[in-house]
Give the backbone structure.
Amino acid sequence: MSKLQSCFLRSILGRLRMAAVIVACLSSVAFAESDAVIVVVGAPGSDEYEQQFSEWAKRWQDISEQAKIDCTVIGLNEPAEGDATDEASSTPSRDQLKAAIQKQAVRESGNMWLVLIGHGTPHGRDAKFNLRGPDVSSNELAEWLKDVKCRVAIANCTSASGPFLNALSRNDRVVVTATKSGAEINYARFGDYFSQAIASPNSDLDHDQQVSLLEAFLTASKDVQDFYELESRLATEHALLDDNGDQKGTPASFFRGILATKSATSGEELDGTIAHQMIFLKNDRESQLSPDQTAKRDRLEKEIAALRKRKSQLADDEYYKQLENIMTQMAEIYVQ
């Protein structure tokens, strides 16, 4: 796909989402789906890291309050007054995490976000998230998540987090890891930039006045890269994103704008489509869409991604005819 055609598609999708203002003007009823986020702060290892990890978690708490999303925080040492944490309980963080996931397993709709903050360690072909008390491995976490029915986004912001992508990857799920493998064991800065990017206007790459998980990943990855370059240091972390279930993951460098340019070896759709549909802090227009409208919009965006993949096999007239048909259906969502 040429740069001009990529810009065309991004512009069209952005304009369609902006058109949701019609819904906001014509309807006074909000249909916002209820999301939930679980933020887990692991063992810091030192006072310096404890302060940093607490700051990252606090950002997620603040944006959750702004977005009116239920936020469960596990593992903070010094919670703000009223925060639900493990401070008043002797229950290990590991058990609290398992219980919090089980509580979300009954959810049929909406999104569940799981954010892991702290340090990780490799463990053979597996990896572990270092908690206060017993750790949790990538395979154990995969087992706990297998019964969750709603769409899930996991952001493992720790060192050595790469194996979590392989273990947790599945269709209709987004997995972000701060590193590309378990061998990248140094302190990872990705979680700092990611916690800032998820609600920053500077992350709004398609200019639709909200930030998707994909845009936050791309922005945070760029900020990490800039840090190492400015410090003239060798980068010791390379974040990956997977949302097509092929267990491969895609780095930010393989995206042009918000479109992935790398083909999935398994024949799956390219990474990025589902991640761009997951928005933590929705704008007013997006919040006016009903669950059915949102599901239809997400399905049509997947069809666009699949059509884009087949473009080289189609004549130009046929390609744009099919694209026009999908875009027309997309436009109808926003004027119903």
Observations:
- The first strand starts at residue 36 and ends at 41.
